[in-house]
UniProtKB/TrEMBL annotation:
UniProt organism field: Mesorhizobium hawassense
InterPro entries for the chain: PQQD (IPR008792), PqqD_sf (IPR041881)
Domain of life, per lineage: Bacteria
Lineage of the species this protein comes from: Bacteria, Pseudomonadati, Pseudomonadota, Alphaproteobacteria, Hyphomicrobiales
Protein name: PqqD family protein
Pfam families: PqqD (PF05402)
Amino acid sequence: MADIGSETVLRMADDASVQHVGDGAVVLLARSGQLYTCNDTTEAFLGKVDGARSFDQIVDLLSDEFEVDKATLDDDMAALAAELVAEGILADPGP
């Protein structure tokens, strides 16, 4: 599983796209045709992944948006990011 540190810059995988639908979002992996539905948290997280922001900056934005303690979000979002890398939705940040 990918190690997501505070300075890790995350970006969407080349074949992944997010579409907002109704009250949620779906992620399509074009190469495989896999479709994933997102809950509000994942949708908000992916909405801030831009290939320029560090993981720490994304967590700061989410902490402000959801009025949640940053320390609480940090571990949860690191686990989510690692899972999204493992699924091929986020590009592997490498070593």
